[in-house]
Description:
- By secondary structure, the chain is of the alpha+beta class.
- The chain folds into two domains: 2-204, Arp2/3 complex 21 kDa subunit ARPC3; 222-447, PPM-type phosphatase domain (Phosphatase 2c, domain 1, 4-Layer Sandwich).
- It has 13 helices and twelve strands.
- Strands 3-12-11-8-9 form a five-stranded antiparallel β-sheet. Strands 4-5-6-7-10 form a five-stranded antiparallel β-sheet. It has a two-stranded antiparallel ribbon with strand order 1-2.
- The radius of gyration is 37 Å and the shape is rod-shaped.
Amino acid sequence: MKAIIELVLNLINSMAVIMVVTYIITRSSFYGEIMAKKFSPRNQLLLVLVFGAFSIYGTLGGIELLGAFANIRDLGPTIAGLIGGPIVGLGAGLIGGLHRLTLGGFTCYPCSLSTVLAGLIGGGIYLLRKGEFPSIKGAVLLSVAIEILHLGIVLIISKPFSQAFALVQQIIAPMILANGAGMAVFAFMINNLIKERATETAKRQIEGELMVARQIQMSIVPRIFPPFPERSEFEIHAILEPAKEVGGDFYDFFFIDEHHLFFTVGDVSGKGVPASLFMAVTRTMLRSRTAAETGPDEILAAVNNELCHDNDIGMFVTVFCGILDTNSGEVIYSCGGHDLPYHLSQSGITPLAPAKGPALGAIEDIPYQKQSISLKPGDTLIIYTDGVTEAMSKSGDFWGKEGLLQSVQDAPRRPAAEITGKILQDLRFFARDTAQYDDITIMALTFNGLEE
Length: 452
């Protein structure tokens, strides 16, 4: 009984050492090429040498019993065959088998032969499964079958039979247990590694797709400034920085006719891909509903009803939109649940008068109010999303409207690009130690007036 316990402990100790080394190997760049099925002659040779050495160590880590060696020698060639194919399995098996042959003993021939067969069987499974490593259960059953075959060959070839039978009786359970456990641990590591690689590949693919989505999203909003260099009556500039690869903030501006500029800023509930899709739909609807004879309140009401249809996911979007008369400086505007812009004039900074209306996509058939303001030459409207005021510092403080107002107060009165740039610079300085939580959009519209 003592000898059996010693045998089991020795086999487990050998298995543990092999598993540690195997873990290191599977995390190497060399094994990364094996996982990618890049079986160059160099890689095949390395596999043969590594798992052939494992086979030798499996023998040396065993215990001599009744003129033979109880060990986990077959584990190395079997694994070599499973991950590298028949040639690799055969190579590792020959190394382990030849080494066993040099040790002699009445079981040297059947044990050497079974080691070579273990590598070939592992390689055969590799071919049958087209290179796919077996499940943990499948790998363990294969290891058990190989050990049963090994001991069967010992009984058939070794002489005298009585001695071979006595040996098999004592080592069959420990060898099957140790080899099965060793294969289970290795199969667990390999399958986990395969899952990790698959996850990494999927992650890289998703990241690539999100980068393309970001480029598409950023191409939707106007990005060339100044957008109308031939028009001196006004300046407009906008900045959009999504918190993720894609986001739900948007801005837009375009001429309805020769003297009326439509402009808008919106913020979709949520973040990421769903928000970006909802944003694209909203922007398209706003464009399609805008006409020279249509007021901003009517535009928002129509878009709201369209967004409410089949809105099962319950998303909504806050929107501010206005129409600038480039001749007079009058702005007619409407607001759907959005923060009111600030009016920057010679007399100070004030929020626009409220134009009440809920976020779009929430409640159908809701009326929207409209208001108007007359801009004087040099006046600027600052439109923004809540990602600006809700930016957070490392200490947990919000930038808030106070921070925005102070930044606007310190900003130059023109051009519009310098105003948005100053606001973004101050915002980044405030939140410099924290990750961006929400999308950030800032628009500045300055009325210059008609040239005399």
